[in-house]
Design a protein that fits this description.
CATH superfamily of the domain at 6-183 and 220-244: NAD(P)-binding Rossmann-like Domain
Number of strands: 12
Strand order of the largest sheet: 3-2-1-4-5-6-10
Bound molecules: nicotinamide-adenine-dinucleotide, thymidine-5'-diphospho-beta-D-xylose
Structural class: alpha/beta
Mean pLDDT: 95
Helix content: 40-55%
Shape: globular
Number of helices: 12
Largest sheet: 7 strands, parallel
Strand content: 15-25%
Order of helices and strands: EHEEHEHHEHEEHEEHEEHEHHHH
CATH topology of the domain at 6-183 and 220-244: Rossmann fold
Low-confidence stretches: none
Distance between the termini: 33 Å
């Protein structure tokens, strides 16, 4: 039982990081959590309302690229674990403007690793992604397969993934790496396929399906991903990477129809649009390595999607502010410029 540890979670105000923080605070009685987040467009303190006032939770606004700030945090909080969720995470944005992706997803990882090396830690978890492997027509990727990233996002994440590994090999830093499938669930920013399509459907807006709609993704409920990350932190072997799959491969058109069914809307809302540049056809992970260690996802897709659609139906205040562009104004009003 991992009591009394201090977790430095980076990017903890985003979709997966915030779900992870809520999960570990609920799971352990005596841990401390420090959440370092730059609060980019994707970071949202409202995701953490249920833990914000707890004595064992501290929020720091800051950039993982800021080595001096990270050093000060290490001096002050002496984290046992560093779990790096912080990233620019949306493929379409990386096609339009790769700059921040290179900075955060590569240099930011380096900046964290340097501080971990100088101060010493028990474990560094780099949250990588299935996109590092690229597309696969048949079969599934294992952890030792070749990297073939297609987008500036995926290439930057590959850089961060391999930098973390190099600190294990070169400096003996206790690093583990997770590579998960596409996540879905509460608090996902409505630019990604599932929350964009749910919220558009609720508003009777078109659902813009790229290309022929037959690209395949493997879907993992965010709570399962959080459990998988914690499992790897506690049980993973240093220097190793672990695939975390949902074991639920679907074409985008199948997801789209499921969303329309669950929101009670017509398939006339589907609109085929120009394909994404460099659009990977299929992602597929072989998760036998983590399964052999004793972990597997619990959610079934139908159950996860029902919960997700219900969440967006019941949290219109959360996503309407984001989609209407009023969010930043609202944020300054409620939390102040410097939060
Ligand atoms: P997200 O975009 O919702 O959240 C990213 C968070 O990082 C935000 O809170 C943002 O403010 C913060 N951030 C960005 N740049 C930062 C910086 N320089 N310093 C500090 N904080 C910064 O992303 P997400 O979907 O929650 O993804 C989290 C991690 O999981 C990412 O590393 C992503 O690559 C990885 N991942 C995501 C998925 C998925 O399907 N969403 C799947 C596999 C892996
Ligand atoms: O409007 C859309 N229409 C559409 O057809 C959007 C936003 C997406 N799509 C397609 C593109 C993909 O085939 O849906 C699929 C999923 O797209 P995204 O939600 O943008 O996810 P993806 O590009 O697969 O990347 C996601 O999974 C891996 C996350 O955003 C990454 O952070 C993660 O690493």
């Amino acid at each position: 039982m991992d009591k009394g540890k201090t977790y430095l979670v980076t990017g903890g105000a985003g979709f997966i990081g915030s779900n992870y923080i809520k999960y570990i605070i609920d799971k352990y009685d005596n841990i401390k959590v420090v959440n370092l987040d730059k609060l980019t467009y994707a970071g949202n303190q409202e995701n953490l309302q249920s833990v914000a006032d707890k004595d064992n939770y501290t929020f720091i606004k800051g950039d993982i690229c800021d080595q001096k700030l990270i050093g000060e945090l290490f001096e002050k909080y002496s984290p046992d674990y560093v779990i790096n969720f912080a990233a620019e995470s949306h493929v379409d944005r990386s096609i339009g403007n790769p700059d921040d992706f290179i900075k955060t997803d590569i240099y930011g990882v380096y900046s964290l690793l340097e501080n971990c090396r100088n101060f010493g830690i028990e474990k560094f978890v780099q949250i990588s992604t299935d996109e590092v492997y690229g597309s696969i027509d048949k079969g599934s990727f294992s952890e030792d397969d070749t990297f073939n990233p297609s987008s500036p996002y995926a290439a930057s994440k590959t850089g961060g993934d391999r930098l973390a590994y190099s600190y294990f090999v070169t400096y003996d830093l206790p690093v583990v790496i997770t590579r998960a499938s596409n996540n879905y669930g509460p608090n996902q920013y409505p630019e990604k396929l599932i929350p964009l399509f749910i919220t558009n459907a609720i508003d009777n807006k078109k659902l813009p399906l790229y290309g022929d709609g037959k690209n395949v993704r493997d879907w993992l409920f965010v709570e399962d991903h959080c459990k998988g990350v914690e499992f790897v932190l506690q049980n993973g072997k240093n220097g190793e990477a672990y695939n975390i799959a949902g074991n639920c491969e679907l074409q985008n058109i199948e997801i789209t129809k499921k969303i329309l069914e669950l929101t009670g809307k017509s398939e006339e809302l589907i609109e085929y649009v120009k394909d994404r540049a460099g659009h990977d056809r299929r992602y597929s992970l072989d998760d036998s390595k983590i399964a052999d260690l004793g972990w597997q996802p619990e959610y079934d897709f139908e159950e996860g999607m029902r919960e997700t659609v219900e969440w967006y139906k019941n949290h219109e205040y959360w996503w309407r502010k984001i989609k209407s562009g009023e969010y930043l104004e609202y944020y300054k009003e409620h939390y102040g410029e410097d939060m």
